[in-house]
Amino acid sequence: MTTHVTVSPPTVPTSVRPRLLEARRRREGWGRTLLVGFITLVALVPILVVVWLALRPRLYSGESGPTLSTFVYIFQNTNILWWLRNSLLVALTATVMSVVVAAPAGYVLSRGRGKGVAGFSLLIFVIQSFPIVVFVIPLFIMFAKLGLVDSIWGVAIVYVASSVSVACWMMSSYFDTIPMALEEAAWIDGASVFGGFVRIVLRNSLPGVLSTAIFSFLLAWNDYLVALVFLRSDLQFTLPVGLQTFFQQNATDWGPVMACAVVMALPPVLVFAVLGRYFSVGGIGGSLAGS
Amino acid sequence: MAGLALPSLVLMLVINGYPVVFAAVQSVHGGGLIRMGPLVGAENYAAALTDPAFWAAARFTLVFTLCGVFGSWVVGYALALLTRRAFPGQALFRVLLLLPWIVPVVVSSMSWNWLVATRDSLLPELARALGFGNVLFLANPTLAVITVCVFKVWISYPFMMMMSAAALEAVDEQVYEAATVDGASRWQQLRHITLPVTARSTYISWILMAMFSVNDFATIYLLTGGGPVNATTSLVVLAYRAVFQDFLPGYGVAVSFIMTAVLVVVSVVLFRQIRRSAMA
Q1: From A262, which residue of chain B is nearest by alpha-carbon distance?
Q2: In terms of Cα–Cα distance, which of B48, B209, B95, B136 is closest to A274?
Q3: Residue B69 has what DSSP assignment?
Q4: pLDDT in tens, B60-82
Q5: Among B51, B81, B209, B248, whose Cα sits 20 to 30 Å from the Cα of B273?
Q6: Choosing among A83, A99, A130, which should be mutated to test the B contact, i.e. which has the most B CBs within 10 A?
């Protein structure tokens, strides 16, 4: 296509050419919008279906056209508000803990050298390779002694354990982009390693921290297996288990099920709508491949 | 500096390290969930390796992982290329295309279930209209495998798209101008410039996605429950069933350990590849 431009007839006055080029580029741009828009539409069919089924009037309700009455129904007839509260508590706790633990560890991975750091890095990789099924039974037995079974706090701890490796990689790869000269200057001014890390590095790492937080939040919010094993009573359920249980009991009545699904999908979508521009997984591999 | 790693180290040793050791001990013992049985040595591992169900699950895991890695990479990379240069709505579409990854799998498995398994919904209607009769997407073993794999690609392509987009940002635009002047076609540019320059990131995304796919429980279990007739039972689903439905933790853990061992070996080989490509 570009060759087309280079052989354009010399009769065109040079002053007009940039404008023609720009017009052509804009046309091509809109063509791209159409193409990508069509692909996006196809890709989002399963998500549009959820919204459509949730807004569709229920049988024998006498309503026509989109309605919110299904949402009223689920708030009155299920424990969804409890599940929502539990999910929010679990995911936010796991997110904060995960960032607090992973940020200093990521700093060590990014700046540290030597055998100890290499071993630490290897440990993180091996841990990430095990499926969560392996951790679940020993943790279940351990948590039973501590009274953490059927408790959302127990579940939050498991989520930290399962997100900590990737969280460390994400933090470490972000710290790699911050020049070391900044901390060195602080050290010369008498700051401790910890002081330099918190006041200089961490303060300049908001996108990295947000990225890691979003990842941990999504992982905790979307998990099904851990919640399925650990949570037993309806009022302790998080949304995935609550919703799945509700689905199994009402498999033919899609409206209320999908209304619950919308409630569950909304928080992560909102998180992305507000903070999405900070999110990047691009760096994950950097520290991974370096190990 | 070592002090900064301490909280994560303690956490990992207690919540990750201890359970792995405990599970390793469990895998050489008989007995049930609560009370561990007598020492049986490598019996659980031998039982797994001679069990046809194990090999069937291993084969499905391989198919599922290959689709998860390469299927979502092809789609994700293509979309990253397509949305690379500015066009009207670029920022919006880049976020919208991530939705399959953002929406919880519990939610999307339900909508896929509705789409493919409800008699009057979209895909069965389409199949009828095309003259295939009543196609049971989740009741026919082969179709169920295909459906689960497509579902996996749909969930995972956004991750690959993000990884690829980040790698593509680092490619110097001037290289393409030079290549165009030299008469390289678009395909040649992709084949000989873009792919090699982003190779490192590509290998890393393969390793990560292989780990995520092999260990993926929810995507499979929520859509098919491992059926029909175990056609979509992966090793993780097999291990889960052994532990929580048949109450044979030793066997379940042995299956997981064999799986993890293979995964680690494959990752290490791929890492070597990365380091070689980084040096070249």
Answers
A1: B107
A2: B95
A3: I
A4: 999 999 999 999 999 999 999 99
A5: B81
A6: A130
Closest chain A residue to the Cα of B22, Cα to Cα: A138
Cα–Cα distance measured from residue A233 to residue A97, given in angstroms and rounded to the nearest whole number: 25
Give the percent of chain A with pLDDT over 70: 87
What's the gap between Cα B154 and its chain centre? 11
Asked if residue B96 belongs to a domain, the reply is yes
- Residue of A63 and B213 predicted with greater confidence: B213
Reply yes or no on whether the pLDDT at A286 is more than 90: no
Helix or strand holding residue B29 (H, E): strand B29-31
Q: What is the pLDDT of residue A284?
A: 66
How far lies B101's CA from each of A70, A82, A212, B111, B175, in Å?
26, 25, 16, 14, 33
pLDDT band of B248, cuts 50, 70, 90: confident
Q: Taking CB atoms and an 8 Å cutoff, what residues of chain B touch A38?
A: none
For the residues of B111-143, what is the DSSP string, one character each?
HHHHHHHSTTSHHHHHHHHTT--S--TTTSHHH
Under DSSP, the state recorded for B36 is E
Query: Which residue range forms the structural domain that includes residue B54?
Result: 25-253
> Which tokens in the block code for residue A291?
């190990």
Q: State how far residue A144 is from chain B, nearest Cα, in angstroms.
A: 11
Q: Domain for residue B260, yes or no? A: no
Query: Would you call the peptide bond into A66 cis, given omega within 30 degrees of 0 as the criterion?
Result: no
What single-letter amino acid sits at B35?
R
| Best residue in A26, A28, A47, A129 for a mutation probing chain B (most B CBs within 10 Å) | A129
The interface predicted TM-score of the complex, written ipTM, equals 0.86
Instruction: Give the span between the Cα atoms of B16 and A142, in whole angstroms.
Output: 12
pTM: 0.88
CB contact under 8 A, A124 and B271: no
Nearest to B239 among A133, A223, A283 (CB): A133
Is B139 contained in some domain?
yes
Between CA B224 and CA B218 the distance in angstroms is 10
Q: In b/e form, how buried is each residue of B131-148, taking b as 16+ CB within 10 angstroms?
A: eeeeeebbeeeebbbebb
- Rounded to whole angstroms, the maximal C-alpha distance in chain A is 86
- In 3D space, the residue among A228, A142, A156 whose CA is nearest the CA of residue B240 turns out to be A228
User: How far, in Å, CA of A46 to CA of A55, rounded?
Assistant: 15
Whether B168 is in a domain gets the answer: yes
